[in-house]
Each structure stands twice: as structure tokens, then as C-alpha cells.
Design a protein that fits this description.
With about 120 residues, the chain is of the alpha+beta class. It has helices at about 10-20, 30-35, 50-60, 85-105; strands at about 65-70, 75-80, 115-120. β1 and β2 form a beta hairpin.
Length: about 120
């Protein structure tokens, strides 16, 4: 399930400043900690703010070069995970990503030499 969110008010202005400073896809951990509206991760999602932060940290610990927020139209809808070049670290990170995708009943990703993969919010 994708999340559609239209930011408004103070939270929206704050989030927009973080996005504007970093470009189209802000760094995920920073956005969660500094700009994520309190109700962004709602009851229809498996993620909570705390779980999202923990997931992003696990992705970095697993070898991600960067994790950013993916936009669909005007809403953040997932994490873009930039993969390392080292084959072993890359394999381990893709396994971690596929575990999360499986938890969301989404198809696994294959390593095809891509620079990044997207973990959609569910």
C-alpha cells in the first residue's frame, strides 16, 4: 500500500525546508528525525516512525550507501536504497530488502547491477 500525504501547516513548511535543502529526495533518516509529521506513518501501515527509523539504520548497517525518501507526485511513498558495489555486502543488503518486501507481500528484487532499489511503504 502506498501512502498519499499532502503536507500542510507548520509540519509541511518544516518538511519542505528539509526537502528544499537537499533536493528532490531528502536523506531518509534526517527527514524522519527532523521533518516527519507526527501522523505520517498511520495505522494502515506496518511502519511506525520508530520502526521506519530503525529500518533505515538497519539498511545503513547492512551496507546502504545512502537511503533517501522517494516521491510519487507530491507525497513520499518509500525509501530509495543505494546499493554498495562490494558483491558480498550488496547480496546481504538485497536479502535484508527482500525480507522487508516479503513482509509487505511484495515481489523480491534481483541484483541486476542497478544503483538502487525502492522499498515502498506498506
Amino acid at each position: 500500500m502506498a501512502v498519499v500525504l499532502f503536507l500542510g501547516g507548520v509540519a509541511g513548511a518544516w518538511a519542505w525546508n528539509v526537502v528544499k535543502e537537499e533536493g528532490v529526495e531528502p536523506e531518509a533518516l534526517r527527514w524522519i528525525q527532523e521533518a516527519c509529521p507526527p501522523d505520517f506513518f498511520g495505522t494502515q501501515m506496518q511502519l511506525t516512525r520508530r520502526r521506519a527509523e530503525r529500518l533505515v539504520r538497519r539498511l545503513y548497517d547492512g551496507g546502504a550507501l545512502d537511503v533517501t525518501m522517494v516521491r510519487v507526485l507530491d507525497a513520499f511513498a518509500g525509501f530509495r536504497v543505494f546499493l554498495p558495489l562490494d558483491p558480498e555486502r550488496r547480496h546481504d543488503l538485497i536479502e535484508l530488502i527482500n525480507k522487508r518486501l516479503s513482509d509487505c507481500d511484495l515481489a523480491p528484487v534481483e541484483d541486476r547491477g542497478q544503483e538502487s532499489v525502492v522499498l515502498w511503504f506498506c
